[in-house]
Amino acid sequence: MSIINLNLKDLFLTHHSCSAFFMCLVVVLILLCFAMNKRSSCKVYLKDFACYKPPPSQKCSKELLMKQVRRMGYIPEEMLDFMKIIMEGCGIGDSTYLPEIFFKESYYNPSMKNSTREVEMAIFGSVDMLLAKTDVKSEDIGILIVNCCIYNPVPSLSSLVINHYKLRENIISYNLSGMGCSAGLVAIGLAKQLLQVHDNSYALIVSTESITGNCYVGKDRSKFLINCLFRAGGAAILLSNRPSDHKHSKYQLIHTIHTNTSTSDQCYHSIFREEDNAGIVGVTINKHLVATAIATIERNIITLGYLILPMQEKVVYIARKLLPSKTLSLNNIPNFRKAVDHFLPHVGGKVVLDQLQKTLGFAEDNMEASRMTLFRYGNTSSSSIWYELAYVEAKGRVKKGDQVWQMAFGSGFKCQSVIWRAIKTVDHDDYNPWADEIVGFPVLLEDIETDPECFVSYLPISKTI
């Protein structure tokens, strides 16, 4: 009898223990679902951004650049004709900006002080404007991400910003380096992830590059394109996850898509910083760059297409996989204009923009912002996409509900796409770098032949091919 009572007692306790366990499990699951739902529902806003516009004293035409290069004597004489050919066909105009060191009378001999001076002008110039536009105090910024590909001093550039603006001691800071022209949108993706877990926060992103100490002075043609394409510039962007900032922000972040093809040796070596045979450091632009870029971009936009395209356009992607490649044409390419109102790809150069336009089937007016940015400001690396957005804003084209597609790509090879939705119609902005000259754009560009096979025929084949 006692055994029966004991078993019943044990059964009773077990039953209650199981009930308590399952109740705790249900509570944990409910809390977990609530947390996941809260994280997924956290909205990220682009409160505003600012682009640095260097002083007129740093404006440099192609003719002046050639004159300075010849006078300073830091480029071998036999490379000058080659440089002139590249300059004429790269899509850059005569009003871009170069760092101060290129206007000095002395021989080109850059120092860390010169490089720091360049990045300080771009960083402080853009952040000062951004804080003035948004009325956000520096002590309210909880996240800081600075990206600069080649110039990386110690302490880091993020520490430079923290020191200059006296940001708070517990700020979450990152410094991205070596990630090329795509780093600006990589920073947007990183900021988005951080804002999912840090409530009521501002994230400051600073994108810039220093070309002061990175001019190639050797005789390897594959390392010479950097001298022709890149120009001074920078941008500062302020993101927020504060619900109260919805009505005070310009855009809401909708999608971030990242594609990295660095596992491919050909992609990995397409843009590579290394020494030439004479021991002079430069950035090699491989002859496979254009093909590598387009292949990586195609993978990125396929993923993006499934997210943003209407159903009838998604069917086209399926058709592209089922139909033989020889049957493909521009009619098989999905019409992204049905999903986005403004397309803003990185201004890597005229050849890249031409091939991108051909691949996506965009009309010339869809490429206006990128071509005008390349013409007016040159390739400012990771910040170029913000000069493009400033262009369409200055034109008064961004209306409430518009979808904006920013695309950046760079060494690795990497491609990033970011989709923004305009919360409101963007009004005139005196801080806009195009504000005092937008009436003169677009300009008519010369129709210079830039067949990619001819343009890169002088570049070396990848060392892994």
Give the SSE map.
Layout (H helix, E strand, L loop, with lengths): L1 H39 L4 E7 L7 E2 L1 H11 L4 H13 L6 E2 L14 H23 L6 E7 L9 H9 L6 E5 L6 H15 L4 E7 L16 H5 L4 E7 L10 E10 L4 H4 L2 E5 L5 E5 L3 H20 L2 H12 L19 E4 L4 H11 L7 H10 L6 H11 L8 E8 L3 E9 L29 H4 L10
Parallel strand pairs: 4-5, 4-6, 11-12
Antiparallel strand pairs: 1-7, 1-8, 2-3, 6-7, 8-13, 9-10, 12-13
Helix pairs in contact: 2-3, 9-11, 12-13
Major sheet characteristics: 9 strands, mixed
Sequence of strands across the biggest β-sheet: 5-4-6-7-1-8-13-12-11
- Strand-pairing-aware structural class: alpha+beta
Mean pLDDT: 87
Number of strands: 13
Strand content: 15-25%
Number of helices: 14
Termini Cα gap: 85 Å
- What would you report as the Rg, rounded to the nearest angstrom? 26 Å
Ranges with pLDDT <50 over ≥5 residues? 34-40, 326-330, 451-455, 457-465
Helix content: 40-55%
- What letter string, H or E per element, gives the SSE order? HEEHHEHEHEHEHEEHEEHHEHHHEEH
Shape summary? globular
Short characterization:
The protein has helices spanning 2-40, 62-72, 77-89, 112-134, 157-165, 183-197, 225-229, 265-268, 289-308, 311-322, 350-360, 368-377, 384-394, 452-455; strands at residues 45-51, 59-60, 96-97, 141-147, 172-176, 202-208, 234-240, 251-260, 271-275, 281-285, 342-345, 403-410, 414-422.
Write a concise keyword list for the protein shown above.
disordered C terminus; alpha+beta; 13 strands; two-stranded antiparallel sheet; 465 residues
Would you write up a description of this structure?
- There is one protein chain.
- The protein is of the alpha+beta class and 465 residues long.
- The chain has 14 helices and 13 strands.
- The strands form 3 sheets. It has a 9-stranded mixed beta sheet with strand order 5-4-6-7-1-8-13-12-11, with helices on both faces. The chain has a two-stranded antiparallel ribbon with strand order 2-3. Strands 9-10 form a two-stranded antiparallel sheet.
- Strand 9 (271-275) and strand 10 form a beta hairpin.
- It is globular and about 80 Å long.
